[in-house]
């Protein structure tokens, strides 16, 4: 049996014997900033082609981890498309060329693996006589099995540079996959191994021969396993099928009845495991959005076989079990990967439940109207109200044979942006022109100076404030999460009390209140140094916090945002669940330990590549130039940062976390204080404890016991109240059931009920169970407004929609409402019209039931 591990071993052994250096797979997350993920075996060798690195070897072979999203919507539909795959490849850098690689390829497939020659077919570039003759004359392949194709040409990337023809080896899957002749397009003949020959340099004025010709080949391990294990698809090989079997056990569904769904689940789980194990994290941008999309697509598919709880995280052990021999590091990542995927699943399942229900209604309505397109407004409502991604709406619609009005969706997005813009107060400010004094460049000197002499470059009056741009300034402008400096700028006969500093195209803008009569003169600029020092403490503390979070929680922690002010800071970071109290205490403890070590804080300007080599942490979402500013805390922490910092960690004083909360799926926020602000926070806490001592008339040592006792009493009282409410609800239900009326064959009840919103919900829940073919309208006056609850029995939900009904009903009392087909809530302000609403309800029902 040719299992996947054995295929890899034989491939590498074969090329090692041919004098190739065996190179490990490069990371799935590449150093190349133009790529989200490594997508081919040649990616790690690009510097060798471009001459950026010296060639230490002229022959190489590798098995490369790859992730491609170009065919995402095809995954599951075909027997060969996947997202994550392993590419077997051999490479030549100015060494051997076409004859050697083609003959070795044929030798490996036919002699080492024993694939029958009659099963293999060949394609070459139309004008590549050399490759054609090697196949026909040198290897002995029948000309009937060789086709010429115009698209067998690789590159050049970006329109210029290395490029060349390629030659593909295809495998005949047999007549059951199509009764067709070999043409390079029919699914019966699967592309197995592509050999690319970079031999030209494409320039603006033509194509010229490359000085160093090369070879770049790629063969998908998954397809090779399918061939060697005699399986009808890659998903039935040892690389996928154990995952599918585990998914069958978890779902209770069978693969043979749901192949597409299980294929998607298995493929996407593999991709997630490898990407997350290397530090990628689900999010809303870049590679994070790729992972989020994979989770959502897999869960949407799983829902079709009745899975409404996390399943992908349960499959992580199956993936790692299959791949652990080639990638032993995965074993140490199982807990981390499982945790992150599960958190993402739990978050999306809530969105999915409501979104799918609404989308199903939209799809049904479109089909009933024989409209093959979902409107842009509907797609936007799903996105804006229910958090349902547009890409998912589009994919589900396509599966139902519908399209989505993408232009209409974009228009709705623009309308929303316009509404947002109208709320901004700063548009008018942009129209007020600057008085330009000099067109010199403004320079920030605040890293080294607290004050300086300067000249005015530009100024303007603005809504009672005054704004100035200086030739040199020690004032830091708000950016990178750090607030702008305040202070004083003094000229001849005037003073500007600077309350904010922010960046602009002209330079750092100093905004404040003007005292005296302004005139152009030399100025003295001085920042509020106490405030700046407080900001420094908090900013350096966020760097220490970032490092400690990665040590305590795991290296998946990445900064998502920050805000650094003089009196507090907040730090947003990726993490799949709330921190335990013990974790918070440990983080706090370790940051304080780092502070009292008196570590030196240094900054240096260097190239981006050099900073990366030194281990500097950079944000993937940030754009960095060729040179960057690196802030180092001894050997403890290194980050790219443009903010202001302490000289030594001990200057931060005491560090205290004041809160830890979630702000988005997989993103947590820590808020905290340092220095004098920590003392103030502790003083506030002391005052709070003293107040509790006074109110409960007990000393602080016994406070916890008294609070515990009080809470227990309240809990018991609530239980008694709940019992009483349940009895009252049962009694009220019996009374209401006696008032049930009929419209045709359907029962309905409409009544005003005294009680809270919660008691009405309990009553409606019981009534709905007892009236599967009925409808109920319950209302209660609570304060100055009316609360309305409407339910539709289970057997009537296809005929009636509670959400639509309640809108019509509540319109009578000058209100509205919403919900789903089964249950809806609403209200209105005209209490006097409640009797009219109850009276007209039967007529509204009659119209809906026609």
Which properties best describe this structure?
850 residues
What is the count of helical runs?
Answer: 22
The shape is globular
The main sheet comes to: 11 strands, mixed
The overall strand count is 36
Structural class: alpha+beta
Radius of gyration of CA atoms, rounded to a whole number: 34 Å
Strand content: 15-25%
Poorly predicted regions: 420-429
Mean pLDDT: 89
Percentage of helical residues?
25-40%
Task: Describe the structure concisely.
The chain has 850 residues and is α+β, with helices and mostly antiparallel strands. The strands form 7 sheets. Strands 1, 2, 3, 4, 5, 6, 7, 8, 9, 10 and 11 form an 11-stranded mixed sheet that branches. An 8-stranded antiparallel sheet has the order 14-17-18-22-21-20-23-16. A 6-stranded mixed sheet has the order 31-32-33-34-36-35, with helices on both faces.
Spell out the blueprint of helices and strands:
Layout (H helix, E strand, L loop, with lengths): L3 H14 L3 E3 L22 H5 L8 E9 L16 E10 L4 H15 L7 E6 L3 H11 L6 E4 L3 E2 L6 E12 L16 E8 L3 E4 L2 E4 L4 E7 H8 L12 H11 L7 H19 L8 H18 L12 H8 L10 H35 L4 E2 L1 H11 L3 H10 L3 E2 L1 H17 L4 H5 L3 E2 L6 E2 L6 E4 L1 E7 L2 E6 L1 E2 L13 E5 L2 E9 L6 E8 L6 E5 L1 H25 L5 E6 L4 E6 L6 H16 L4 E7 H6 L13 E7 L3 E4 L14 E10 L2 E8 H22 L6 H35 L3 E3 L2 E7 L4 H14 L3 E9 L2 E8 L9 H10 L3 E5 L3 E6 L5 H16 L1
Parallel strand pairs: 1-2, 4-5, 12-13, 15-19, 32-33
Antiparallel strand pairs: 2-3, 3-11, 4-7, 6-7, 7-8, 7-9, 8-11, 9-10, 14-17, 16-23, 17-18, 18-22, 20-21, 20-23, 21-22, 24-25, 25-30, 26-27, 27-28, 29-30, 31-32, 33-34, 34-36, 35-36
Helix pairs in contact: 3-4, 6-7, 7-8, 7-10, 8-10, 10-11, 11-13, 15-16, 19-20, 21-22
